[in-house]
Design brief:
disordered N terminus; 31% helix; 2 domains; alpha/beta; 25% strand; single chain; six-stranded mixed beta sheet; Rossmann fold
Amino acid sequence: MSQASSNIVRFESVSLQYGHEPEILRNITFSIAAGSFAFLTGRSGSGKSSLLRLIYLAQRPSQGFVSLFGENISFIERQALPAIRRRLGVVFQDFRLLDHLSTLDNVAIPLRIAGVREEEVRKHVPELLAWIGLARFLHAKPSTLSCGQKQRMAIARAVISRPDLLLADEPTGSVDSCVARRVFHLFIELHKIGTTIIIATHNECLARQFNFPRMHLEGGRLLLLDTQKT
């Protein structure tokens, strides 16, 4: 993580407070360069999801500023937000799938929004779903799937358009260890082609298995931990 002009995410003295509740995040400053891969760790309730919400523009900071793709989000005009959000892929803890759509159609949403030709959609979406073990569920609705299958669907939707920045909130919380390894392999392959990735997890043991930097939230404050292996 550097302070270079290539930073894709930058927080400067950011704090976050909901109403009169205690601050969830306190005076946080960090930057992430384009092409980085970082883990965001901390206990459940430490503010990891809130920090991600600031990055994907679902929340504004109470203090300080957040810069995304070199733009201070406080000054981004509303009409510019959809284009910025199309550069993001987000894996939500609660999946946020559309119950009336099939697996294929849920995953295809980012491609269709981007105007990708339907023949390309019908080629690439089944390929990805087969790779993550959902080939038999192309036409299944979310209500018929297990929690782990829904999580894989949500991950596929987030990565299908090869976003510039991928945010994943506990992306392996509902899958077994075999699927978790496959999911992380997918993230690493995306990272190799240039996607910047931030993965929030309370599983510090998992984070330590990979040779990537770790940011740790504790008491509303952020610690930057160097986990590079020698």
